[in-house]
Amino acid sequence: MTGLLAGFFAPWLIYAGIFVLHVLLPARRVKGYVRDKRSGKRLRYRLNGPLVLVVGVMAWLAAGYSGLMPWDWLWTHRWSGAAGACALGLLVTAAVVLTAPGRGGSLLADLYFGRRVNPQMLNGRVDAKMFLYLVGAVLLQLNLLSFAAHHFLTYPDDPSPGVVLYVALFTWFVCDYLIFERVHLYTYDLFAERVGFKLVWGCLSWYPYFYVVGLWSVADLANPNSPAWLLVGAALVFLTGWSLARGSNMQKFTFKRDPEKSFLGRLAPKAFSDGERRVLYSGFWGVSRHVNYLGEILMACGLALSLGWLLLPGPWLYPLYYVALLFPRERDDDRRCAQKYGRLWEQYCEQVPWRIVPRVY
Ligand code: NDP
């Protein structure tokens, strides 16, 4: 019973610790993309994700080395931990939504999509959205390490190299997100979404516990003895996806900040423009209209492949989730852009007919 309770409240405690680290550790201050409705000025953010991650992982290592906490404690308490994170997600959703004025729609819609757009606390020191993504990312990383530790403790003589590869690639994914936190300020979540169940519960519970579903499914299984070509292939699929996602996101980030600037000092931007608004159609954005989504799906496939259990459904739930998330999202974003850019978007669709996968979709 004590173990269950400890597991349940573990994510609460970890999130509280991350909050303190985020507030106290040095951070860079940057201007975002979203504007404050009242002042019309761009919102400002304090970002210190990489530092918080490093300190968080060091605390986990210290707890393991000192014997304060078994290396695979988060694995042992994964079910109660996921339940605790779920409950916290629901509580925080209710607190964030119900304390804001209604939007004139149904309460259920408000709870799901939220009422507040870009809430910030402590005089702008903490931005709710960026903090939610940060806690999700750090707990995801700790879960990855603890689940892998369980595998190593269970099979000390013959651990699976696939587990090592999976953790290495996923660590890359987490670090990449945190290192490029600033680029995230220019994405859909920041400018188009509100803070409700989808974002709060998604970050506090789904992100750290579901994203690791591949390792959750196989950490208890013996080494599948994957051939080297499969491991190399999995890494290549992941890295191809990463290049597409990171490349396209960086190109758009560069373009939004300075529409004349060449990407990586080489690729001059080509854009449809009416003198005021601009739609980029060169480089990554000339391959398909959301090649970044293709990149994300490929990364997820690389992760599933790396574990080596090709016929087990568990690892494939992760790429499937991305397909279910990103295909409808592309449709939503397309509608939003068609409305915002009008004729320029039509020209873009004629120039680049593919939504996500070039020559296929
Ligand atoms: P995008 O980064 O593609 O952003 C879409 C917005 O970019 C549009 O609404 C529009 O906004 C602008 N835009 C789109 N096309 C053009 C163009 N050709 N020229 C100029 N502006 C354009 O999508 P998301 O924000 O959804 O995703 C960002 C990243 O996050 C992606 O890599 C995605 O895969 C990833 N992601 C990751 C998730 C995860 O869990 N790991 C979940 C969801 C997304 P405007 O012009 O108004 O600025």
How would the blueprint of this fold be written?
Blueprint: H1 2-24, E1 28-35, E2 42-47, H2 49-66, H3 73-76, H4 78-98, H5 107-113, E3 120-121, E4 126-127, H6 128-154, H7 161-179, H8 181-184, H9 188-192, H10 197-210, H11 213-218, H12 228-257, E5 271-273, E6 278-280, H13 291-306, H14 313-341, H15 343-351
Antiparallel strand pairs: 1-2, 3-4, 5-6
This protein binds NADPH dihydro-nicotinamide-adenine-dinucleotide phosphate.
NADPH dihydro-nicotinamide-adenine-dinucleotide phosphate binds next to helix 12, strand 6, helix 13 and helix 14.
Description:
- This protein is mainly alpha-helical and 361 residues long.
- 64% of the residues lie in helices and 7% in strands.
- The chain has 15 helices and six strands.
- The protein has helices at residues 2-24, 49-66, 73-76, 78-98, 107-113, 128-154, 161-179, 181-184, 188-192, 197-210, 213-218, 228-257, 291-306, 313-341, 343-351, and strands at 28-35, 42-47, 120-121, 126-127, 271-273, 278-280.
- The strands form three sheets. The protein has a two-stranded antiparallel sheet.
- Strand 5 (271-273) and strand 6 form a beta hairpin.
- The protein is globular.
- The mean pLDDT is 94.
- The chain binds NADPH dihydro-nicotinamide-adenine-dinucleotide phosphate (NDP).
| Count of distinct strands | 6
| Shape by Cα distribution | globular
Helix content: 55-70%
Based on secondary structure, the structural category is mainly alpha
The ligands bound in this entry are: NADPH dihydro-nicotinamide-adenine-dinucleotide phosphate
Span between termini: 51 Å
